[in-house]
Amino acid sequence: MKRRIRVIIISVFAIAAVSLVVTQFFQTRRTFSINDNMFNVGVGNAMDEVIKQLGGESQAIPGQTSEPFNYQELDSLVIEQLLVNGIDIHPVVGLYNGTERSFLYSSDPQHEQQLEESPYRYNFHPAGVVSNSQFFIILSFPSAQLFLQRNSNLFVYLSFFLVLIIAAMFIISIRAMANQRKLDQMKSEFINNMTHEIKTPLATIGLACEMLRDDTISQDSESRKNFIGIINDENQRMRVLVETILQSAKMSNKNFRINPKEVDVHQIIGKVAQSFKLPIANRGGRLTTELHAEPSVIVADELHITNLVYNLIDNGIKYSSDAPDITVSTRIADRFLELRVSDHGIGISKEDQKHVFEKFYRVSTGNVHNVKGFGIGLNYVAQVVKLHHGHIALESELGEGSTFIISLPLE
Asked: Domain limits of the chain?
């Protein structure tokens, strides 16, 4: 995905997300206002019914007669009618004499100041009789505002949480698309490189066969032996390439299992080194083995360990700009057999070292694109090491070469 398109998509999403949050904010404020109005209407309807019921009874006028006023009934009626109108907040209830500016009753004397300032004030005429004094039933809802705001905030937090989830999914989708595009590109490069890798030995084998058909060459035992050696080497090279691809594909299956048995790592190194003797000599290089591990026998899959050593040496040859100078060494370190393959090639940058063991990844510095390969060898090596419960490390500096360190358990 082009960078410009990604920027446009991300910008559009950011604007949409901000717009959604702003819209939700104003919608929440509007909802809070509606809830507040509905709350006031509910309280008003409840108090109309309370006053209606109290007015229809023969209640004594507070402070005007010797008969007691039933304040408990006042409390119960208020709570009952509020519940009928969908309000489950218990208010502080007060009966106020407006003429004398004093409370005749308060369900919570500590809140008389809030009662006096409360807007929920309703005229009350006991038994429907208008007296010389002006009476009010006053309600105070200390937690009403907090209750309404808490309900509204719940939607704000929920909306914000959903926006975060959408944003996270959007970012994940963008990254997945970018990774998918990168993977498609790497696969295309892999197919191109693999085709080239296989065509080269086939062409060499074909040319050698044509030369062997020549009677003058076929009668020369030295030349015939040389061309047969070329065919054998190219056939071996192609076999390893195909085997690496097939085994790497098999290892992608979670149910893949190795076939461990006792193998001598030094013998494997010797066989692989012998197969590289001619190619290295043709480039004027050298392959040195320093085998100091005792014991050198481990429990491992011989096929995969052989391919591992082959890939590491082949990698060192490929990434040596001049005559390759490869050193393969072994030693025992903390119940592990440590295998080191070092070269004096072009080296690998710190950034590329983070990705060299990824499938299809090829180093993109120096003259690497002129190097044959398809970015699967080191990934295969890493998978083999993992299957054997070992460890792999890389030490490299640009222009100074690389050292791959493989640690395989002795038991």
From this structure: 3-142, 149-248, 257-409
